[in-house]
């Protein structure tokens, strides 16, 4: 099965990332975030499908191949018994008749596969001693062992999944050329023994394409049905006798549900060297409990439905003893995921920063359980920094700060000046206290730049900015208006006070040139002064008034205050 994310439906809520046990959902791009399932890391557990509130995770089987089989009209379909719940209210009779009508030559119910596997497990159970044997009929467990706990591979029971066992049996019966498709909740993929593996959703689609309506089929079997009775097995392929003998967990039999237990199993087997007996492990409570089989709240209903259509058990074996088919399996270790470069991971963790308690935030907003897991995924290109809220907030603050501070001089920018000017006007009106504005422009600065170069010009600008900063109070605003122009707001200051500060600044800036080693009179400033008087608030812009005064200072011969 392929799990894919439909970019049209995905709103990047990251719910799927949160539930994925193998971090197989990569998040790329900046705006918008693009999510993608990394096939190599996906263990096909199906958790992401019900987790997505927008139906954006799609599961695709090999429907093209299944269509090719039905169009030839001589293939077999192994239809898992759970189909009864998926296609309800259609009865097994309606459903199987529909499969025939769609073009399958024969339809089996997966019972033979369960029987074959159960017989093999019984054989293994009776062969003592076997130390630890892990049930291998859940593809999700097998995939997880192969990719994450390779130390457990030698302990996997050498038994294949029931669908594959049945396919081998059918070919042994009817010839190696037989085309076989399997339909299930999440059937095994890429098996050389199966020509097509499709989901029940794919089967519905196949019916549509072939123009077959399930509910319009005859209500009785149109052909003698293939074997539907069990003798040895319970659903899923464990022998009933074994389950009854070891009803409670014992030293020879352990029942485990969920992948989380694998870590402890791996430790017990490979570190503590314990013999665990037969480990009956499934990723959930069986196919009917699979995330793709429907809401967990309806599990009881699904079980009951299946129980009611299950025919009585056969007293004798339902397998044809003359048919010899292998149910063996070998499991190769899958290379572990590429490890992230530790230096890159540390760099990302540093960029994320820590919480107020000095520890990693681990807030899970990104979909990962910890900052470290996020950083590892990000280092492999599977996560985007846009997922991390604390990082984004800090970046927004930095951007705000950057917009407020002029990078060259460290003074406020025009944006801050504009906002503070509006604020001071309002405050002045309320408090009845005026304030003054100084507009400063360096004299003949272009000539200095041309003569001594831009680096020298920048040094002068920085030194002038220092001079202004030192001359004003913390409550005042010193800003760079642009180029070699500066504006200062002197709060609670009248014209007389403003003129005093302006004169001090003029003299100070004249001294800057001398300190930097320039000829006297090369670095000077002209300053225009304007006042906001709340008693007579002028209609015009205060900056314009200060600018006009500046021109008067220039006209008066520069290096002056007006
Ligand atoms: S099927 Fe499972 S492993 Fe694959 S992407 Fe979905 S949650 Fe992750
Ligand atoms: S759960 Fe995943 S696929 Fe669904 S909308 Fe959210 S991010 Fe997209
Ligand atoms: S701080 Fe960022 S990386 Fe860490 S858990 Fe929260 S969102 Fe994820």
Short description:
With 562 residues, this protein is an alpha/beta fold.
Spans where pLDDT lies below 50 across 5 or more residues: none
Radius of gyration: 39 Å
- Tally of DSSP helical segments: 20
Output the structural class: alpha/beta
Strand content: 5-15%
Description:
This protein is an alpha/beta fold. The chain has 4 domains: 1-60, Alpha-Beta Plaits (2-Layer Sandwich), CATH 3.30.70; 61-309, no CATH class; 338-389, no CATH class; 405-555, Reverse transcriptase/Diguanylate cyclase domain (Alpha-Beta Plaits, 2-Layer Sandwich), CATH 3.30.70. 40% of the residues lie in helices and 13% in strands. The chain has helices at residues 15-19, 48-51, 63-72, 83-86, 92-102, 111-126, 139-148, 162-174, 200-209, 240-245, 262-270, 299-309, 342-352, 371-379, 389-404, 414-431, 445-452, 454-471, 495-515, 542-555, and strands at 2-5, 25-28, 34-37, 57-60, 76-79, 106-108, 132-134, 180-184, 196-199, 253-257, 277-282, 435-442, 477-482, 485-490, 525-532. It has a 4-stranded parallel beta sheet, sandwiched between helices. The protein has a 4-stranded antiparallel beta sheet with strand order 13-14-12-15, sandwiched between helices. A 3-stranded parallel beta sheet has the order 7-11-10, with no helix packed on it. It is elongated and about 115 Å long. The structure holds iron/sulfur cluster (3 copies).
Q: What are the SSEs and their pairings?
A:
Layout: E1 2-5, H1 15-19, E2 25-28, E3 34-37, H2 48-51, E4 57-60, H3 63-72, E5 76-79, H4 83-86, H5 92-102, E6 106-108, H6 111-126, E7 132-134, H7 139-148, H8 162-174, E8 180-184, E9 196-199, H9 200-209, H10 240-245, E10 253-257, H11 262-270, E11 277-282, H12 299-309, H13 342-352, H14 371-379, H15 389-404, H16 414-431, E12 435-442, H17 445-452, H18 454-471, E13 477-482, E14 485-490, H19 495-515, E15 525-532, H20 542-555
Helix pairs in contact: 6-8, 13-14, 17-18, 18-19
Bound molecules: iron/sulfur cluster (3 copies).
């Amino acid at each position: 099965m392929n799990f894919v994310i439909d970019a049209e439906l995905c709103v990047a809520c990251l719910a799927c990332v949160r539930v994925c046990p193998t971090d197989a959902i990569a998040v790329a791009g900046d705006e918008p975030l693009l999510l993608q399932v990394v096939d190599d890391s996906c263990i096909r557990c199906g958790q992401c499908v019900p987790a997505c509130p927008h139906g954006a995770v799609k599961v695709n089987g090999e429907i093209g191949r299944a269509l090719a089989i039905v169009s030839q009209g001589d293939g077999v379909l192994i239809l898992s018994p759970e189909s009864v719940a998926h296609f309800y209210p259609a009865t097994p009779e309606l459903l199987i008749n529909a499969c025939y009508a769609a073009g399958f030559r024969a339809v089996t119910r997966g019972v033979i596969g369960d029987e074959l596997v159960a017989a093999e497990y019984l054989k293994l159970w009776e062969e003592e001693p076997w130390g630890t044997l892990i049930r291998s009929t859940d593809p999700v467990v097998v995939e997880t062992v192969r990719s994450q706990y390779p130390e457990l591979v030698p302990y996997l029971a050498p038994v294949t999944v029931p669908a594959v066992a049945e396919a081998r049996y059918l070919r042994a019966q009817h010839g190696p050329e037989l085309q076989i498709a399997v339909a299930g909740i999440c059937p095994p993929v890429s098996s050389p023994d199966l020509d097509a593996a499709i989901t029940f959703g794919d089967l519905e689609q196949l019916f549509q394409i072939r123009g077959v309506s399930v509910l319009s089929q005859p209500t009785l079997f149109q052909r003698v049905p293939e074997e539907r009775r069990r003798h040895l097995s319970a659903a899923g392929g464990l022998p009933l006798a074994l389950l009854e003998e070891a009803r409670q967990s014992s030293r020879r039999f352990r029942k485990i549900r969920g992948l989380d237990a694998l870590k402890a199993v791996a430790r017990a087997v490979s570190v503590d060297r314990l013999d665990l007996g037969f480990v009956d492990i499934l990723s959930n409570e069986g196919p009917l409990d699979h995330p793709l089989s429907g809401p967990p709240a309806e599990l009881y209903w699904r079980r009951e439905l299946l129980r009611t259509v299950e025919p009585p058990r056969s007293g004798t074996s339902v397998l044809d003893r003359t048919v010899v088919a292998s149910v063996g399996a070998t499991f190769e270790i899958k290379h572990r995921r590429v490890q992230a470069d530790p230096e890159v991971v540390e760099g990302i963790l540093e960029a994320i920063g820590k919480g107020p308690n000095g520890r990693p935030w681990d807030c899970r907003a990104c979909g990962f359980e910890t900052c470290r897991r996020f950083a590892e995924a990000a280092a492999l290109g599977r996560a985007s920094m846009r997922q991390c809220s604390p990082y984004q907030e800090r970046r927004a603050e930095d951007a705000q700060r950057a917009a407020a501070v002029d990078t060259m001089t460290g003074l406020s920018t025009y944006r801050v000046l504009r906002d503070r000017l509006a604020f001071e006007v309002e405050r002045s009106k309320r408090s009845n206290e005026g304030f003054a504005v100084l507009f400063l422009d360096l004299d003949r600065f272009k000539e200095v730049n041309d003569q001594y170069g831009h680096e020298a010009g920048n040094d002068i600008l920085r030194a002038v900015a220092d001079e202004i900063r030192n001359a004003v109070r913390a409550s005042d605003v010193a800003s760079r208006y642009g180029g070699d122009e500066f504006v200062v707001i002197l709060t609670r200051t009248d014209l007389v006070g403003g003129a005093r500060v302006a004169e001090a600044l003029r003299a100070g800036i004249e001294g800057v040139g001398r300190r930097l080693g320039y000829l006297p009179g090369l670095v000077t400033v002209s300053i225009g002064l304007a006042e906001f008087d709340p008693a007579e608030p002028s209609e015009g812009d205060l900056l314009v008034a200060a600018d006009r005064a500046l021109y008067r200072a220039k006209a008066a011969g520069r290096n002056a205050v007006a």
